[in-house]
Structure to design on (589 residues):
């Protein structure tokens, strides 16, 4: 873990030593070779990331089927979005996704991190088991859970053992349950990641503060919310950003499980964007959906950061 | 004994053991399904415990699903993309962390911001760019796209690590008259080994598990990596659950190995990610 520790130490050393000390170890004149060192990676990223991103914005103001020149249409694609019922479903599903996926994986990950924080017998086995799903790709996770959800599959069989046969249904084909069925699978994979982040955060919590609160008669619940939680603010910010970014990116698992069906009931913005852009080759309209995803991601994160910094002030 | 360090009560394990088993149930069940014969599944249902042992699912996945070729494609993409990304990120991080390049902080943050963009905003143009360069539908396209998109994050992490190296190391090499190239190669890279290992473990699983970039720049089935090939398998063998389950396990095994062998690096890599 040397890498992580060293990194965490970095801002402190940098912040406390302005001026002269900051230049130590930073070499003076920049040799040509070093300019090449910087220019090549920068050029690769500019060409493969920033140039395409810029292109998406300009494409979103056109109508283009991929052949012939693109027709400029002004804001027509964006106007069309708000009259498109599938887009509205995707937007609503994405809102459910951010709340459900974020809420459940944070609740699960935090609870498990607190339970498994202190070392003890079997603890490392529990930890490994809980973050094992994270190494499985989202596409494979989707397939694993497709097996689970099949009629007369393990979930229905389990319900049968519990005498709850009446609850069993076509989980992924039923418009009422499909989205939540996919969501559970995605949460299963995410919880381990959130747990790892919180475990790292809990290592930085000062035990003497909690000890002092315990002496003052605070019970475990109060100590957690009043003493430990405020110290996890940094981790919370990271987790919020990770969750929002992941929620808006979610594509593989939905594509593997339902492809947005049944009747677009599990369509998310990213799957609808892919369908419009690649399956139906509406490049302008697909780009407009991509721009919406981008704006939402940026807006969410900026709002949160502004609120955080205001609370701290 | 302090109040907050009390030993765990006995019921802790009473809850955790079943919980952990339930947590792993999807993986365990897929193993069960993978080793059952088609007739057993058809006769007794998907949810039943195995009453047969057969590798016909695995054989079919490799023979009919061309999983072997797909694994090779995934391996090629992963190896080249990981090496190229880390090499480019390392030189960029070296330049930004150790030289007085104007606006180095801004350049670094812009590079990181590129990695935080939702990939959806890149997909359509990236697909068009690869077509106009004549590399659409090649593994090379997947590799360069992966490298371009991952670079910002790897550079950011390595930059942080290189900044934390003691300044004396660099001052000594300057007095020795070593050039930038030699300083990088024989001093900085060896010192960065832990950070590079963590990033390599992380990048391997990310790139191997990728689906969306492959779907964006590939069209021919024989060039698909294992994730995309699996989804095809699902279309071709939609009721042969033992085939799909076997394929899923095969696709999960390489990253599981990376995880078990490099568990420490993997976890520290994730934590490095949280410092962005």
């Amino acid at each position: 873990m040397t890498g992580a520790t060293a990194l965490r130490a970095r801002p402190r050393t940098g912040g406390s030593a302005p001026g002269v000390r900051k230049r130590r170890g930073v070499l003076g004149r920049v040799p040509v070779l070093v300019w090449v060192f910087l220019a090549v990676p920068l050029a690769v990223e500019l060409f493969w990331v920033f140039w395409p991103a810029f292109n998406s914005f300009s494409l979103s103001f056109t109508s283009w089927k991929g052949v012939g020149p693109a027709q400029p249409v002004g804001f027509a694609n964006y106007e069309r979005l708000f009259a498109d019922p599938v887009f509205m479903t995707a937007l609503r599903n994405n809102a459910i996704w951010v709340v459900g996926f974020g809420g459940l994986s944070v609740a699960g990950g935090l609870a498990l991190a607190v339970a498994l924080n202190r070392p003890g017998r079997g603890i490392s086995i529990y930890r490994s088991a809980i973050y094992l799903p994270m190494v499985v790709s989202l596409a494979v996770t989707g397939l694993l859970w497709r097996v689970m959800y099949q009629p007369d599959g393990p979930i229905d069989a389990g319900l049968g053992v519990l005498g709850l046969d009446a609850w069993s249904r076509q989980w992924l084909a039923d418009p009422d349950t499909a989205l939540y069925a996919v969501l559970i699978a995605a949460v299963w994979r995410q919880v381990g990641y959130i747990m790892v982040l919180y475990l790292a955060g809990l290592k930085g919590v000062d035990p003497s503060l909690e000890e002092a609160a315990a002496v003052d008669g605070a019970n475990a619940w109060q100590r957690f919310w009043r003493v430990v939680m405020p110290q996890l603010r940094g981790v919370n910010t990271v987790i919020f950003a990770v969750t929002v970014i992941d929620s808006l990116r979610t594509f593989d698992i939905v594509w593997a499980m339902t492809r947005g069906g049944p009747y677009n009931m599990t369509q998310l913005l990213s799957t609808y964007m892919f369908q419009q852009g690649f399956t139906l080759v509406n490049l302008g309209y697909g780009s407009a959906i991509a721009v919406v995803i981008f704006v939402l991601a940026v807006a969410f994160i900026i709002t949160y950061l502004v609120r955080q910094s205001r609370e701290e002030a | 004994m302090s109040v907050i360090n009390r030993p765990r009560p006995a019921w802790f394990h009473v809850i955790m053991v079943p919980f952990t088993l339930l947590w792993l149930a999807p993986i365990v069940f897929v193993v069960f399904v993978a080793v059952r014969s088609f007739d057993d599944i058809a006769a007794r249902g998907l949810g039943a415990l195995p009453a047969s042992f057969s590798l016909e699912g695995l054989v079919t996945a490799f023979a009919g699903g061309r999983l072997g070729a797909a694994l090779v494609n995934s391996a090629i993409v992963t190896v080249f993309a990981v090496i190229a990304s880390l090499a480019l990120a390392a030189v960029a991080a070296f330049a930004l962390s150790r030289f007085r390049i104007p606006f180095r902080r801004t350049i670094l943050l812009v590079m990181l911001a590129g990695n935080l963009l939702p990939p959806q905003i890149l997909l359509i143009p990236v697909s068009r760019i690869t077509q106009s360069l004549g590399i659409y539908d090649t593994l090379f396209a997947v590799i360069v796209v992966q490298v371009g998109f991952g670079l910002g994050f790897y550079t950011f992490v390595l930059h942080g690590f290189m900044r934390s190296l003691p300044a004396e190391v660099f001052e000594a090499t300057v007095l020795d008259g070593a050039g930038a190239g030699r300083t990088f190669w024989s001093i900085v890279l060896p010192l960065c080994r832990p950070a590079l290992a963590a990033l390599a473990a992380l990048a391997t699983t990310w790139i191997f598990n990728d689906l969306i970039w492959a779907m964006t720049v590939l069209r021919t089935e024989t060039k698909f990596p294992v994730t995309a090939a699996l989804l095809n398998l699902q279309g071709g063998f939609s009721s042969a659950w033992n085939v799909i389950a076997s394929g899923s396990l095969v696709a999960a095994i390489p990253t599981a190995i990376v995880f078990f062998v490099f568990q420490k690096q993997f976890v520290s890599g994730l934590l490095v990610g949280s410092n962005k």
